[in-house]
Amino acid sequence: MGYGLLKGKRGVIFGALDDDSIATQVAKKAMEEGAEIVLTNAPVAFRFGKIQALANDLGVEAIPADATSVEDLQNLFTQALEILGGKIDFVLHSIGMSLNIRKNKPYFDLNYDYMQKTYDISAISFHKMMQVAYKQDALSDWGSIVALTYIAADRTFPFYGEMAEAKAILESYARSFGYHLGVNKKIRVNTVSQSPTLTKAGSAVKGFKEFFEYSDKMSPLGNANAEACGDYCVTLFSDLTKMVTMQNLYHDGGFSKMGMNPGIMTGETRWVS
Questions:
Q1: Which of 96, 166, 186, 197 lies most in the core, judged by the most C-beta atoms within 10 Å?
Q2: What are the residues whose beta carbons fall under 8 Å from the beta carbon of 265, sequence distance 6 or more?
Q3: How far apart (Å, rounded) are the C-alpha atoms in residues 39 and 126?
Q4: Which residues are catalytic?
């Protein structure tokens, strides 16, 4: 049952693919809180994914758009403004993909053409999205933009490949564009560093299952799931966080602040002091 935190607000959700997607949970939570939304994903997701069926189930519109294409993004925001009947109050960027990871390329033998695509899809698309929306004056004053990131942006996770650098770029865009959007439109921009989450994208990473279990044991509260991430993003879209911007916010059950957990060494699921 919602609290009406987003009543009367309009949003665009990038990256919903199926029921396991974090973006899907964010979309559902936003609607529970009274928001009207539009879903979007790459055209290939409409051909091979379940986004249209998901949109039908939610009773919302889904617009195909390649987030690396400025023209597609321009068309997306134009259509979203028409569908929603006004300016957009919040946007979620939940996009990430590495061909090097998909093809099991180790970090010391990366394909640089793949790397460029990783950066364009996973990071530069965030800048393009904000730039297009700003130029079209598509965003409401005091709106909110959130992108999903990961702690590998500033710590080393050998299996995460060049996605680590992509997330570092993403977080930098949030700070830099956050300044300009804040000064000019009072719009806030933040990133959320989520726990390892059982999604198609996460599961594609080599050793993900083992790391998921490790992270769950290391975190005092355990891993945060996609539904909980949806709740957290809703608070960042709401007027309760109007003065929070340019931050990287950890939603990870405490993992980011842990140095070690004795339970891992003793083989216990949780070590209680």
A1: 166
A2: none
A3: 16
A4: 150, 160
